[in-house]
Specification:
The protein is of the alpha/beta class. It folds into 2 domains: about 30-150 and about 275-295, Rossmann fold, CATH 3.40.50.2300; about 155-270 and about 305-330, Response regulator (Rossmann fold, 3-Layer(aba) Sandwich), CATH 3.40.50. It has 13 helices and 12 strands. The chain has helices spanning about 5-30, 45-60, 85-95, 105-115, 155-165, 185-195, 210-220, 235, 240-250, 260, 275-290, 310-315, 320-325; strands at about 35-40, 70-75, 100-105, 120-125, 145, 170-175, 200-205, 225-230, 255, 265-270, 305-310, 330. Strands 7-6-8-9-10-11-12 form a 7-stranded mixed sheet, with helices on both faces. The protein has a 5-stranded parallel sheet with strand order 2-1-3-4-5, sandwiched between helices. Strand 3, helix 4 (about 105-115) and strand 4 form a beta-alpha-beta unit. Helix 3 crosses helix 4 (about 105-115) and helix 5 packs across helix 6 (about 185-195).
Length: about 325
């Protein structure tokens, strides 16, 4: 064999070896990238979920994680259909995700029923002790940890905000979703706050979008003077409809998420859900670096946002007190 031919073969073999090494290395790296599951009870088309998940990704970046590079995020959407959650949670478990991040009591309950070994981070939920998810905020035990959105006086503060705007209100409707296990502790706190404030409550249920109109008809029939919308994925998904019905029936309303006021509700008062999602990334980081869920205490909110929709106030013929406006984090004109 000539020296030229031998040299050509050696170059070809060397080139093949060089090209093969990065490919094998890339495959190995891809297989070792941790997968994180996101289980959402809501729809991908809802702008608020985009806001939440962007905040979650920002939190991950703060800890050095970039989706598609050194971490892979698998998202499953229930589109507001709670009956789909079990199937979606099973999909994530079968993918052998390292952590499942989810939010709201219905999704958390399903995730907990699906796996007792994969750590679950609650981006937010109603009182996880009262709902039976954990035995203690300080030492949650089991495979759950994360953040609770329910400060003990949250609904009491929402009633106070309503009283500032409508000082003479004496009967307030409370719209909840009995299909959500987080509904009961919210109602208990609402009743305690109402007794302290001397307000009579009218408790109403809407477990599906088709029941919302009937709930508002009952508010009118019972002469409610205002309405509190409890935290629930289905109800916040239907926030524009709820805000419209409240305005049409001349009912001042308060919800717990900024998106409620943005959709036309009179006022929102509650923790920053986007900030809670960003903070949940810290839990993911600690779990990926060896921490156990039971060793990570559950956080409660310390920062609350007030958003006032002045357009809705004008529609309802209400004057918003200056004392509330100066405290507001956002005033929608």
């Amino acid at each position: 064999m000539s020296n030229n031919k031998t040299g050509f073969i050696l170059k070809a073999l060397l080139t093949a070896a060089i090209l093969t090494v990065p490919i094998a290395g890339a495959a190995q790296d891809a297989s070792s990238i941790p997968r994180i599951g996101l289980l959402s009870p809501s729809a991908a088309s809802d702008p608020r979920t985009t806001r939440y998940f962007d905040a979650f990704r920002q939190g991950l970046r703060e800890h050095g994680y970039v989706d598609g590079q050194n971490i892979l995020i698998e998202i499953r959407w229930a589109d507001g259909k709670y009956e789909r959650l079990a199937e979606l949670a099973t999909e994530l478990a079968q993918l052998k995700v390292k952590v499942i991040v989810t939010y709201s009591a219905p999704a958390i309950r399903v995730a907990k029923q699906t796996t007792s070994t994969i750590p679950i981070v609650m981006a937010f939920t109603i009182d996880p002790v009262a709902t039976g998810f954990v035995t203690s905020l300080a030492r949650p035990e089991g495979n759950l940890t994360g953040l609770s959105l329910m400060a003990p006086d949250l609904i009491g503060k929402q009633l106070e905000v309503l009283r500032e705007i409508v000082p003479n209100v004496s009967r307030v409707a409370v719209l909840g979703n009995a299909a959500n296990v987080g509904n009961a502790p919210q109602l208990r706190l609402a009743q305690e706050a109402a007794r302290t404030a001397g307000i009579q409550l009218q408790l109403l249920n809407a477990s599906a979008p088709g029941e919302i109109d009937g709930a508002f008809a009952a508010m009118t029939a019972e002469r409610a003077g205002a309405v509190v919308v409890l935290a629930d994925p289905m109800l916040i998904d239907q926030r524009a409809r709820i805000a419209e019905l409240a305005s049409r029936r001349n009912l001042p309303s308060v919800g717990g998420q900024i998106e409620y006021a943005e959709a036309g509700g009179l006022v929102s008062y509650g923790p920053s859900f986007s900030d809670m999602f960003r903070r949940s990334a810290t839990y993911v980081h600690r779990l990926l670096t060896g921490a156990k869920p039971a060793a990570l205490p559950i956080e409660q909110p310390t920062k609350f946002e007030v958003v006032v929709n002045m357009k809705t106030a004008k529609t309802l013929g209400l004057a918003i007190p200056q004392s509330l406006l100066v405290r507001a984090d956002q005033v929608i004109q």
